[in-house]
Amino acid sequence: MINLNVFLAKSGVCSRRDAAVLVKEGKVTVNGRQILEPWHKVTDGDSIKVKGKLLRPEKNVYVMFNKPKGVTTTLEDRFAESKVVDFIP
Fold first, then answer.
1. What torsion do the CA atoms of 30, 36, 38, 44 make, to the nearest 10 degrees?
2. Residue range of the domain that includes 13
3. CA distances from 8 to 19, 25, 41, 66 (A)
4. Distances (CA, A) of 34 to 6, 20, 46, 52, 89
5. Which of 4, 30, 63, 84 is the most buried (most CB within 10 A)?
6. What letter would DSSP give residue 19?
7. pTM of the full predicted structure?
8. Is 63 a domain residue?
9. Could you tell me if residue 15 is inside a domain?
10. Inside any domain, residue 74
């Protein structure tokens, strides 16, 4: 069980602070009931909607990469010949 505002943030809706504002404004429902407390506990089985749109939590994706010599780890470098993002589809 996690707080509703944390669930909203992990779902990619907004930040935790903005999620608290959404909840307090009455724009979030849990299992069909309007919730006004950001600290309301929710589980994975709950049906959570923001402005009528059903949410699903985002899953984290981790990528392991053995960086070859000469590859830059920054995302943007106009002087780099190759960057890590060039190897990841």
1. -10
2. 2-54
3. 6, 14, 12, 34
4. 17, 14, 13, 11, 41
5. 4
6. H
7. 0.64
8. no
9. yes
10. no
Residue 25 covered by a domain: yes
End-to-end Cα spacing for the chain: 34
Examine the pLDDT at 7 and tell me if it is beyond 80: yes
Who's near 77: CB < 8 A, 6+ residues apart? 83
Q: Can you name the residues that pair with 53 across neighbouring β-strands?
A: 50
CATH number for position 47: 3.10.290.10
Sign of CA dihedral 71, 75, 80, 81: positive
Domain tally for the chain? 1
What the block records as the tokens of 9 is 């943030």
- Structure confidence by residue, pLDDT tens digits, 40-84: 999 988 999 999 999 877 677 888 888 888 888 888 888 888 888
Q: Supply the DSSP symbol for 5.
A: H
For the chain, what is the largest distance between any 2 Cα atoms, rounded to a whole number of angstroms?
56
